[in-house]
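Supplementary Text 2. Reproducibility record for the structural model of the 177-residue chain.

All settings were left at their defaults, and a single model was retained for analysis rather than an ensemble. We include the record here because the model underlies the residue-level annotations in Supplementary Table 4.
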Amino acid sequence: MPYSSNGQYVPWYLNRRCPIFCIPCLPIYQGIWTARLCIFITGAILFILGVTFMLGLIVTCVAIECSAYTGSILPLAFILLFLGILFLHIGWAAHLLDFEGKLPVEEDFTENIKTLNEMEQREKDVENAIFDTVREKNIPEIKQGYWQFDEKDSWQAVANPYPIQSSLKGIIPRPEY
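Retained model, structure tokens:
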């Protein structure tokens, strides 16, 4: 389990580290960090062009037989799609880098400790006494889900005014138990 430096648990989605499979790509992300927006937009344009070429080929080849066009433009469309996805990935990953595209070598953590003087300590004790009196009161147990109906029928039986046992009782013969 990942923990921060002060021993607190940190969930995976708040941990600011890239996945292990992206570590080989970090030099690329750092290298294009200054041009990340340009790379991202270029990738989006290339991807849109690739999709447009493919859709154009589909529409054209449905209308007429065009194997010559398809043979020349389809590889270009695939290359544009691939490059577009690659550039989008690199541009977005570079955008996610912190510290202006540099990796943090050392992390500094500071901790402030506040000491209370005698008067502040008395005020704190009075506040704690108030909270203790509230905490000592008996709070009724709030049952949730199915368990709230331990003493009564289930919510399905309560909510259905015409249960199947009552509505079909006269029609379907049922043997007694």
